[in-house]
Amino acid sequence: MSPSAVPHATADDQFDDDLQLSIVGLATEYPPFHNGPEALEILAKRHYPESNAMSKVLSINRFTGIEARAAVGDADHPIVNQAEPPSIKQLSELFLNEGVQISVNACRRALKEWGGDSQDITHVVSTTCTNSANPGYDHFVIKELGINRNVEKILLAGVGCSGGVAALRTAANMALGASYRRKPARVLVLACEISSVFVRSELESIHQNQEVRIGVCLFSDAASACIVSNGVGEELAQKSVYKILGWKHEVIEDSHADLGFDVDPLGWKVILSQRVPSLTSKVVNPGFNELVDSIPQLHRDGKILSATDFDWALHPGGSLIITGVQSAMCLEEHHLRASYEIYMEHGNSSSATIISVMDRLRQPRHAKVGKDNVVACAFGPGINMEFMALKRGNRTTNGHMNGHTNGHSNGCAVEPQNGIPAEDID
Hints:
By secondary structure, the chain is α+β, with helices and mostly antiparallel strands.
């Protein structure tokens, strides 16, 4: 059976003309270190002998297109230079220190942009795939921020790189529930990943099993946060970053073994198959069309907007994911400019990346030449496909007001990414 996206939207799957949902504050926090490709080579040569598998991984590492990856430490950090790879207990302790701190920083910046008080937060939706502590890391972030300890909260697990959009979707549904009850909703959305410290675990598997594992070449650290408001008791038109128009979630059939992130005594192990780029590029077009179909305000005079009428906040999972979607949707590089930039400058920070791309897109230099509408898209274990349609608000970074214009597309040509190997597939 050939892979296909299920389930499909029905003709009755329609959003209201105006959901009255907005993102009113948004921020990303990267840790202080940004390591170039040489950092992986240093660690590999310091702790492991040469082998065919290790040489292949290091070769891939030089040509991913990533200039630097955000990390909580450099190649000399003690936790990645022990005699043996760190245990999952050590990794969890580090996350609950470093991860909680950058999460608090991201949340405080999002709260500051919103202008509200932490005590006014009504719900918290968090996600991570790089920690599984109980209580979750969100418990400690909430405590540090001074949010009401009885705030309604949920911590999403098992969604990996799609977690940022999944958390936004969950927050939007919670806010709509509050709207139904005529109650205000100010939902704090948080995503945090600390994956750089899994480097020894991945290198150990490469050495012991002679596996070519490319996740060690792609992943990085970050925390991102935003505030979703339902507008009850608040002037959204004065301060929105994005308006939320609608969303879509699908699962690609027969694909659960192609993309994953499994727990291991030495942390978590990335599962990637070479089918991932082809699987995602096949389903993105019908998924996008069903999303736009379900949002009446995206229909202009009976004509539905096309993919080129949007800026794309695509999760930059890897170069072939980006170029595969670009080709499938007949996009040009400028439609995906923020995804390319975040990928090159910071790497793939899993669930935290999508909000970083959205943040980049609202910077004045992007907003001035950008489209009115933005589509967020991410793929995660399952394989889950997440979409969210957004409309630019009137706030960019640093208090600037949007003055964007609609651009134009000139077809489907996708320039090859020179030097990037076919194995770069996440």
